Structures are given as C-alpha cells and as structure tokens.
# Entry
Amino acid sequence: MRRCAVTEHVGATAYETYLAEAAARRERAGLSRRLTPRSPQPAAIDLSGNDYLGLARHPEVVAAAAEAARRWGAGATSSRLVTGSLTLHARLEEALAGLMGQPRALVFSTGYHANLAAVTALADRNTVVVSDAHIHASLVDAARLSRARVAIVPHNDVSAIETALWSRPEARALVLTESVYSVLGDASPLPAIVDVAQRHDALVLVDEAHGLGTRGTDGAGLVREHGLTGHRHVLVTATLSKSLGSQGGAVLGSEAVVDHLINAARPFIYDTGLAPAAAAAADAAIRVMLEEPERVIRVRALARRMATALEAGVPDAAVFSVPLPTADAAVAAAATTMAAGVRVGCFRPPSVPDGVSRLRMTASAGLSDTEVEAAIAVVSKTLASTADDAARAT
Ligand SMILES: Cc1ncc(COP(=O)(O)O)c(C=O)c1O
# Structure
C-alpha cells in the first residue's frame, strides 16, 4: 500500500492567513459580529426580534409543537420526496393557502430555502431576474444561484422595473420584491409592479416575510390586501419564523408552480422536511391569529407609536429603522440601549445594501404599553446622545 507523505507545515497555513486577514479587516472597519446568546427569559425589552404577534410563546402554539414532537418525533427524518412528507405538512399547506388566498402552498424548512427554491426553479439563462436594490439576502443568493442575468433596480422604482422588462432579450422575467422591506420597513408598490409585470408578461415574486401577520385583514398579507391573490403574474413566498412564531418557509402559487417546485427545486428535493414541531406550531399560530385579530391591529399601532416618538417616519407594518452616521456609532448605540434594558437590531454592511448602518426596531403585539413607553424613553435618549456626539465630531 502506498503511503501519503505528511509534511509538517511551517508557519501559517493558507487558510490561517486568510482567516486572520479577514478578521483584521472586519475589526478595522468596525464590522465584526459576535454571538450573544440570550436566556429563555430575556432580561431586556426586545425590539429586535420578528415575533410580531407575540405567538412564539403562546401556550397553544407551544403545546402544538410539543404534542407534534411527542407524536411524530423530533425530526421529519428525510426529504419530503422520501418519507419526510407528513400529514402535518399537508394540513399546514392547506391552512396557509386558505389564509393567503392562494391555490396551493408548499412548505420548506426555512424561508431562506423557500426563496432559494422559487427563484432557482423558475429562473435560468433564458430569464432576467429584476431585483430591488434592498431585496433580502436569500433572494440575492437565489438569483446568483439561478444563473439568470440579474438587473438590480433602485428601491421601489416601478419605472426602472418597466425599463428592465421591456428592454430584455430573455424570454422570461422574474421580478423580486418584498411586500414589506425587512430593514427599511416600507411597503412595496405592489399594484403598480404587478400592472407593469402583466404588461410585459413577467412574474412577480412577492416575499411576504414581513407582511404576513402585519398587513391585510386578519394578517393575510399585502398580496391579499391588494386583491392580488391567485393573480397569474404573482407568486408568493413567506416565512413561518416571524409572525407565526415558528420556523420554516413556504411558496404559494398555482398548482403548476407547486408541482414544478416539487420536481425541480433542489432546496426542496435535497433537504429534510420541515420538523413536525415547527409545522404544528405554525398551524396553531394561524389559528390563534385568526381567532385573535386584535394582535394584528396592535402590532401596527405599536410600531406607529414607537416610530412617531422616535421621529422615524410612519412604518407600513411592524418594522422601522433609524440611520446612524457610522457602523461604530450603531454598535455603540445598540450597546447603550442594551445596557439600559432594551435590545434593538444593529444592521451594518454587508447586511445593508446601501452601506448605511441602522438601528432596526420592531414592534410586537406581545409588548405591554409600559414596556413600549420604557423602550421609547431609552432609545430616544440614546439617539439624542449619539446625535450630540456626531455634532461634536464635525
Ligand atoms: C425578507 C425575508 N425573506 C426571507 C427571510 C428568511 O426567512 P427564514 O428566517 O425563515 O429563513 C427573511 C429572514 O430574515 C427575511 O427577512
């Protein structure tokens, strides 16, 4: 038997050098990220999560997850196309399709996978993907992976979308938009985009990650709010991990689209099915959302109250953000609010496409009025002192 000669490497390996240089670059730019695990009973008022309706800890949602885990086991055990397709998935797909007014739904293990699946199965070298400049990273990655030509258009710019569509040489076009943008918190001009797409025979993928639970009657989303359900030029994706308080994602559209995804979407075919507990929790969350529509109204009202008090404009759903002068200022401001008992999101490049660092804040129907007032006081004091520091530095 031939033996491989193993030689001791002298000095740093190529990867050690690469990692050390990348870490030093991040540190210099103030862009290092560290994990700060939280305890199950967080000490801080949370304005950073996406549990918009306060359902992640709802007793019925948690009980459904626990019961499903006991009955079905902890995992789905294989891909949906092998033995991983459960009646729990079918029930959840029916509930989602009913809620969002779509003919069919297909669930995935994450919202990220749902976006990857939809775009990679529907776009190829004979497709142009027209993507909003602020589109979520999962759709950016999906577009790259599809090998389609990607035309990036300015945020919510309908005429730029139209130009990209009419000037295309490709047979097909897929327009990517978020019903409510995940960091900026503004809504997509959906009716105008769909109108343009219809005129140029394109398909609009609407990511309802931040619209489900926060827009439309009973939280059915922005597509339903605009009466665009079942539209031939509209395809919807959603996540189960925000308003529904669980984990997972979904694509919603026609029979033909769902059938195509089952047969062609690699993130569906080569991924273990959604965990039973997550599927049952999302299904229970939909039931609670429909039984308690006041949660949808409350989250919108709280977002408006906080954003107005913090002079951050009028949010279109549950998210809003405040731009800060530098990444370091954003990190420092988030640390200050945290020390005062309020957790806010801190978004810096590369998580923000325009390079502007921001504090991102979210409302949740689960917050009490006292918590909201306390959070407003802490964040506004922090923002005022950040502005003073910036003024002194100039
Ligand atoms: C707009 C948008 N789409 C998709 C996702 C991915 O969803 P998930 O966290 O379920 O993978 C997110 C999550 O951050 C998001 O904000």
